[in-house]
Structures are given as C-alpha cells and as structure tokens.
C-alpha cells in the first residue's frame, strides 16, 4: 500500500478537494466535493498572509516565519510588508537587479 508523508493511501483517498490557486500557483482555497469552501487563504498585495490561515499554504512550498512575518524561499527571506527580499540573492547580480 502506498504512503503519502506518513499517511496510508486509504486515509488519503477518503475525500478529495479541488484546489483553487492564484496566478503564482499558490493555493488560495480548497473546495469539497459538495462545492463548499473548506479552507481559504488571503494575502495582501505583496504576499503578506491575512486571517486565521496565515501560516498555512504559502505559495510554491515556501515557509512563513511567524516571528518576523517574512517568507523563507529556500535561499533567502522575502518581506511581504515592503514587497522585496530582505536578504541578498545568493547568485548575486546574475539573478537580476532586485538582489536585496
């Protein structure tokens, strides 16, 4: 029997949800088979999470740091309050002009 992150396949297959994504591919809603909204995530203009689901479902597998409010993107931190990265791009200027 297959497993998904510690769950048996039988547990995973109990109920399916449709995922509604934003333009960047991040999840914004989960819809039940009956058409009800089971979960929602809202963000401000630059990605700052809003509401009770603020720490779940960051775009593209990113991680929201509750202490700083920043979003960790594997190699650097993004500050959604100002809409810019708070740390330099690890590839330097090769990554573009918005490096810090």
Topology, number of strands: 11
Strand order of the largest sheet: 8-9-10-11
* Residues in β-strands, percent: 25-35%
Order of helix and strand elements from N to C terminus: EEHEEEEEEEEE
Distance between the termini: 47 Å
User: How many strands, which pairing sense, and closed or not: the largest β-sheet?
Assistant: 4 strands, antiparallel
Radius of gyration: 17 Å
> Which regions have little confidence, pLDDT < 50, spanning 5+ residues?
none
Shape label:
elongated
Helix content: under 10%
Mean pLDDT across residues? 76
List the total number of helices.
1
Find the structural class using helix and strand composition.
Answer: mainly beta
InterPro entries: Rhs_assc_core (IPR022385), T6SS_VgrG/RHS (IPR050708)
Organism: Austwickia chelonae NBRC 105200
Protein name: Rhs family protein
């Amino acid at each position: 029997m297959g497993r998904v992150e510690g769950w048996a396949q039988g547990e995973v297959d109990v109920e399916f949800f449709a995922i509604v994504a934003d333009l960047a591919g991040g999840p914004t809603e989960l819809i039940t088979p009956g058409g009800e909204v089971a979960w929602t995530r809202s963000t401000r203009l630059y990605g700052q999470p809003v509401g009770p689901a603020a720490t779940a479902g960051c775009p593209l597998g990113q991680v929201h740091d509750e202490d700083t409010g920043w979003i960790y993107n594997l190699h650097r931190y993004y500050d959604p309050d100002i809409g810019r990265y708070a740390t330099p791009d690890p590839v330097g200027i090769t990554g573009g002009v918005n490096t810090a």
